[in-house]
Amino acid sequence: MKQLSILGATGSIGRNTLKIVEMFPDMFSVVCMTAKSNVDLFSKQINMFCPEIAVVFDENYADDLKKRIGKNTKTKIMWGKSGYIEAATCDLTDMVVSAMVGSAGLIPTVEAIKAKKNIALANKETLVMAGEIVMDLAKKNRVNILPVDSEHSAIFQCISGHNFSEISKILLTASGGPFFDLPVDEFLNIKPEDALAHPTWEMGKKISIDSATMMNKGLEVIEAKHLFGVNQNLIEVVVHPESIVHSMVAYKDGAVMAQMGVPDMKTAIAYAMSHPDRLALNQPVPDFFELGSLNFKRPDNNKFKCLALAYTACDLGGSMPAVLNAANEASVSAFLDNKLAFTDISTVNELTMNKHEIINTPCLEDIIKADSFGRKQAEDIIKSLEK
Ligand code: NAD
Ligand code: MG
């Protein structure tokens, strides 16, 4: 029985993780779960999975949650940062599913690694912000970081059993999002509801907007660089609108390994949860006869400026990716609140990066400062654009 702490249980990844737990009750149990504010769903999840600890964002949500779940539960309700860390480091936990969204996931994930918990990592922002620090820490603590992000899970599966030094290229696939074929002069009119309608994947709001700007793919290049310890020049983004090939790895003899499947995160989540075994998920195999063909296209960095910015941040390294990530969280949030135009997401991100003086080998404290700096600068720029 593997005991899980699920950070971000009410999110898209969290809910899919719980579906897998429900399918395999003899293999997994949930000892801790966390959410931010959706106490309605969270209370139902707690009643169903009976964790030891459940954590929400603040005391008000904790009070509300206590009222909803009643007195007869063994679950201890906690709140705030210390609660999240408790859930990430709990003695009973074998594996932490890191599935909060954004920079909030960094510290609980770092603390989980320090507590020698294996990590199923969905929260890509952790590696974007502090890839070197996190991977070093994992190595030191002999912790496995198993990718949940579908592309990274695909790469992980394509390199397994192969000689890593024989890789010639990593082909990171991207759906291209809802606007890949939209003329750039129509980008100005894009509304949050258009951007949230992803053609192939069902995801949380932030990552859906990141997919529409292709920032998600940029963040994934940085994630892959750290996770697999490769130079970013080895990673090429390939737009593949059907989202059937989840990524590919080419070897020096010309052989290319691809991992395929229907676009459903459960396969990647389950593989991280049960590696090296596979779970009988009963997922359908893609209907290749129905599909007929698979398409591959080159991304347009001039149209999708966020992708180009992520490459720049990745090249510059140090504290810059953390600043870009923070700026992007602020600009995406402002776009979702109808305070910023879609095309200004990249403008805000770029102007924020321009204001940052890079720290080349940052410690965790420097990363947290870079995150606050990026957020504050971006918010100021957003305000100036509003006027
Ligand atoms: P989501 O918005 O659906 O869920 C986020 C979860 O984090 C929720 O449980 C929410 O309560 C919690 N949360 C949000 N802000 C928080 C805060 N400040 N403090 C504590 N908890 C907080 O997001 P998602 O789509 O499930 O994505 C989660 C992570 O997984 C992201 O990093 C995303 O990039 C990554 N990811 C998601 C998918 C996907 O298909 N959804 C695929 C690959 C990677
Ligand atoms: Mg992905």
What is the total tally of β strands? 11
CATH level 1 name of the largest domain: Mainly Alpha
Shape: globular
CATH superfamily of the largest domain: RNA polymerase sigma factor, region 2, helix turn helix motif
At the fold tier of CATH, the topology name of the largest domain is Rna Polymerase Sigma Factor, Chain: A
Low-confidence regions: none
Distance between the termini: 57 Å
**Estimated radius of gyration:** 20 Å
The strands making up the biggest β-sheet line up spatially as: 4-3-2-1-5-6-7
- What ions, cofactors and ligands are bound? nicotinamide-adenine-dinucleotide, magnesium ion
Strand count, sense and barrel status of the largest sheet are: 7 strands, parallel
- What is the domain total for the residues? 2
Number of helices: 16
H/E order of the elements? EHEHEHEHEHEHEHEHHHEEEHHHHHH
What class would the helix/strand composition place it in? alpha/beta
Please state the second-level CATH architecture of the largest domain. Orthogonal Bundle
Beta-strand residue percentage: 5-15%
- Portion in helices: 40-55%
Mean pLDDT, to the nearest integer, reads 97
